[in-house]
């Protein structure tokens, strides 16, 4: 596709520094400053689409000398989880995949030294250490401890959920993302804005634990935060201040203010230091902190700050230390992981098998629905191709049976189409597991293949069992079993085919388009719609690679070489009726073509599963979230980075094509607005108790999430709804906005004194949810215009 004109954008510019063990490091910077890119570079996870120069070393070892994803853990901003799993199951799965690291070896060494020294360990302490180092239990002690620290113990048995399935809150999902890597053995942690969606007390509790573990276990932790509270900021030992891809300051937290005082900027006494450090780099906020009254203020760019830091004493000490190479001999062998995965391959295979078995149970509704759908289609098929109206006398009769075989195989083929949507929905989680080296992709493919065999058995067996004799196929048990075997192989091939399409498309729209096109090609070139003799020579290769051709030929040979069709086709031929039909429709009449068809379908199944594993291991998600800059913004950013003259805002707005364009030539209009008040009284909200909680002994039938909530919202008053994560803020807003589709709601809601009617309330209200769901192919302006066209009155001028 045409990519258009591109400009080079420097995301990180000559970033150098040292992240020290046993010290908690804070990475600060405004949005689009390069924090995520820096963390990815340090974790060794920068994509191949970015050009990188320089070197990252761990204890003097380059990234190619060990396995960075196993040594370090990168906590992403995105909360990708399997919606059908509970919090405890998610953490247990992550813990089993990552293993215990070097804890087991350390325990063995400790036991040896205790035995040699004649020391008898404390019984409770010995049990605790063994539970940490051995693992493999149903419920790990580490998982229980991490859930307690992160405040997830209250929702441990609650489904994670997503946009379509009710689950935990957004803040709890953020903590779950952090917990997935804390249960592992990684000694280096890179955490990207883990406080988004969390209240300050929960953030403080998590970081307090990270500080203690970093100091006690000699860990290395770098955490990116946007606006940390003062008490949270005080927990850190070091600060890295990043702006426009350049490190402005790196060093002890206590010396950060001294550096900016050296530059002429002073933090007010009651000002949050973290906010000051970010605002002092902003052009619009910098001047208010200027503290030299006898010198005129001038804007200092991030490039100037970076140059000044190199000449500052803290910066000099840092770069002097960087100039001295680290002696690799002092690095402990267990500090860096050289194995790609945390546990043995057979354990990973067993863990994945149990995981996918659990997901099959949670998604049992899908398989039951597919079974009912297959049953209904089978009834329709039997009513159309009823044996009472079909005969075995002429070639035209055989054509009807040939159509019945073709229709049956198309239904079996279509039955695997659901694999596309099921796989695409799980792909973000699978990519996360792959990048974190939880397991190899073949360890996911094999269990999914094995668990699909029972599905193919009962679906293909059910179809053959209820349709074979009703339609009137050849009444021979051997041919009945052969048709069942053929349909089973076809169903397996269908599942593998659509998994390949899902892993290749990686997007629901693209994958469904590919899937529909693949079905069109397979059906058109399968030998039934267009016979082999009528396919053009330049398309005949499609006939030979179509798996439906082998299935159709095998099914036709199995049926028409049977006893029911073993009669002469006419007085002037020695062929049987079935063989004559096969030759007339350009099928191969030899009996061994049945086994060729079965072998071809099995070969396609193996090949497609190998391709599925390959695509899952090597392809990355389609599209990526990134900041977008206009040409003017890019030029100004480059000037600030180089320390050149910065364009004034008025001058920039005067010549900006985006601001001075056609969309802003007309004057705006004032829309009429009717102030409304909203009051709610004794709001109660109940949901059904989950099965997991009932199994733990809870006898109630309903769980109450909102208890007698009463309040009012007034016009011209901005109201803040605050509360800890999981307090019910989203639930209350969903109830008030009328977005709840399940559960029981009690209480009254009034709009300006009148009872709320959802039909009219939806027209006068707007609800911004946590999930950012947009049309991916529209621009920002087009999205806003579309929303305005739908919501504004019809008398509003549509022209801008």
Would you write up a description of this structure?
With 800 residues, the protein is of the alpha/beta class. It has 4 domains: 24-84 and 186-330, Rossmann fold; 371-618, no CATH class; 631-664, no CATH class; 678-770, no CATH class. It is 49% helix and 9% strand. The chain has a 6-stranded mixed beta sheet, sandwiched between helices. The protein has a 4-stranded antiparallel beta sheet with strand order 10-9-11-12, covered by helices on one side. The chain is globular, with a radius of gyration of 33 Å. The two termini are 31 Å apart.
Give descriptors for this structure.
ABC-type transporter activity; transport; single chain; 12 strands; 30 helices; 800 residues; ATP binding; ABC transporter domain-containing protein; Rossmann fold; six-stranded mixed β-sheet; nucleotide-binding; alpha/beta; globular
**Count of DSSP E strands?**
12
The Rg value, from CA coordinates, equals 33 Å
First-residue to last-residue Cα separation? 31 Å
| Beta-strand residue fraction | 5-15%
Mean pLDDT metric:
84
Domains, number? 4
Basic shape: globular
Q: How large is the count of helical segments?
A: 30
Largest sheet: 6 strands, mixed
Class based on secondary structure composition and strand pairing: alpha/beta
Oligomer: single chain
Q: Provide the low-confidence segments as ranges.
A: 645-667
Instruction: Provide the helix percentage.
Output: 40-55%
Major sheet: order of its strands? 4-5-6-1-7-8
């Amino acid at each position: 596709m045409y990519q258009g004109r591109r400009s080079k954008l420097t995301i990180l510019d000559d970033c150098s520094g040292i992240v020290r063990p046993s010290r908690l490091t804070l990475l600060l910077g405004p949005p689009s400053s390069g924090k995520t890119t820096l963390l990815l570079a340090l974790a060794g996870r920068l994509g191949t689409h970015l050009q990188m120069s320089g070197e990252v070393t761990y204890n003097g070892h380059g990234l190619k000398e060990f396995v960075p994803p196993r040594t370090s853990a990168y906590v992403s901003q995105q909360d990708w989880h399997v919606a059908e799993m509970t919090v405890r199951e998610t953490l247990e799965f992550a813990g089993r995949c990552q293993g215990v690291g070097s804890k087991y070896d350390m325990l063995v060494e400790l036991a040896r030294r205790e035995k040699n020294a004649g020391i008898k360990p404390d019984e409770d302490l010995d049990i605790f250490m063994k539970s940490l180092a051995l693992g493999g239990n149903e419920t790990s002690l580490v998982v229980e401890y991490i859930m307690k620290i992160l405040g997830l113990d209250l929702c441990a048995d609650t489904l994670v959920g997503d946009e379509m399935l009710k689950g935990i809150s957004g803040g709890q999902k953020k903590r779950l993302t952090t917990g997935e890597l804390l249960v592992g053995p990684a000694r280096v942690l890179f955490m990207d804005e883990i406080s988004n969606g969390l209240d300050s007390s929960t953030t403080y509790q998590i970081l307090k634990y990270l500080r203690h573990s970093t100091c006690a276990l000699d860990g290395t932790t770098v955490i990116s935060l946007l606006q940390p509270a003062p008490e949270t900021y005080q927990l850190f030992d070091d600060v890295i201040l990043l702006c426009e891809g350049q490190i402005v300051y790196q060093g002890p937290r206590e010396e950060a203010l001294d550096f900016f005082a050296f530059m002429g900027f002073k933090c007010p006494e009651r000002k949050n230091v973290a906010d000051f450090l970010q605002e002092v780099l902003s052009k619009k906020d910098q001047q208010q902190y200027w503290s030299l009254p006898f010198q005129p203020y001038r804007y200092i760019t991030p490039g100037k700050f970076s140059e000044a830091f190199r000449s500052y004493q803290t910066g000099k000490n840092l770069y002097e230390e960087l100039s001295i190479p680290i002696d690799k001999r002092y690095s402990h062998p267990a500090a860096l992981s050289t194995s790609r995965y945390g546990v043995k391959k057979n354990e990973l295979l067993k863990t994945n098998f149990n995981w996918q078995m659990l997901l099959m149970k949670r998604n049992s509704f899908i398989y039951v629905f597919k079974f009912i759908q297959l049953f209904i289609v089978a009834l329709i098929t039997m009513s159309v191709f009823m044996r009472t109206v079909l005969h075995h006398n002429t070639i035209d009769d055989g054509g009807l049976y040939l159509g019945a075989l073709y229709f049956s195989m198309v239904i079996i083929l279509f039955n695997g189409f659901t694999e596309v949507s099921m796989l695409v929905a799980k792909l973000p989680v699978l990519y996360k597991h792959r990048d974190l080296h939880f397991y190899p992709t073949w360890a996911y493919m094999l269990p999914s293949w094995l668990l699909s065999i029972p599905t193919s058995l009962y679906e293909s067996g059910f179809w053959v069992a209820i349709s074979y004799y009703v339609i009137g196929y050849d009444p021979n048990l051997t041919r009945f079993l052969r048709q069942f075997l053929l349909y089973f192989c076809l169903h397996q091939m269908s599942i593998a085919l659509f998994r390949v399409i899902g892993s290749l498309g990686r997007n629901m729209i693209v994958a469904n388009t590919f899937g529909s096109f693949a079905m069109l090609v397979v059906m058109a070139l399968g030998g039934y719609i267009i016979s082999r003799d009528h396919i053009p020579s330049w398309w005949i290769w499609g006939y030979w690679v179509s798996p439906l051709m082998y299935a159709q030929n095998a099914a036709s040979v199995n049926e028409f070489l049977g006893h029911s069709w073993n009669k002469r086709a006419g007085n002037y031929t020695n062929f049987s009726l079935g063989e004559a039909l096969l030759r007339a429709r350009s099928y191969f009449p030899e009996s061994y073509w049945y086994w060729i068809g079965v072998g071809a379908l099995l070969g396609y199944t193996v090949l497609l599963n190998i391709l599925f594993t390959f695509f899952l291991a090597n392809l990355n998600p389609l599209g990526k979230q990134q900041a977008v800059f206009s040409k003017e913004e890019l030029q100004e950013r480059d000037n600030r980075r180089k320390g050149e003259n910065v364009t004034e805002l008025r001058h920039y707005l005067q010549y900006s094509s985006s601001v001075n364009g056609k969309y802003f030539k007309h004057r705006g209009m004032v829309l009429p607005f009717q102030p409304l008040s909203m009051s709610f009284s004794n709001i109660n909200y109940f949901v059904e108790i989950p099965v997991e909680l009932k199994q733990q002994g809870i006898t109630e039938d309903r769980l109450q999430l909102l208890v007698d909530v009463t309040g009012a919202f007034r016009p011209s008053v901005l109201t803040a709804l605050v509360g800890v994560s999981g307090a019910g803020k989203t639930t209350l807003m969903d109830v008030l906005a009328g977005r709840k589709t399940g559960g029981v709601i009690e209480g009254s809601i009034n709009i300006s004194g009148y009872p709320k009617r959802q039909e009219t309330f939806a027209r006068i209200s707007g609800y911004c949810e946590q999930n950012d769901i947009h049309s991916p192919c529209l621009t920002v302006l087009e999205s806003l215009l579309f929303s305005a066209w739908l919501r504004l009155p019809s008398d509003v001028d549509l022209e801008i």
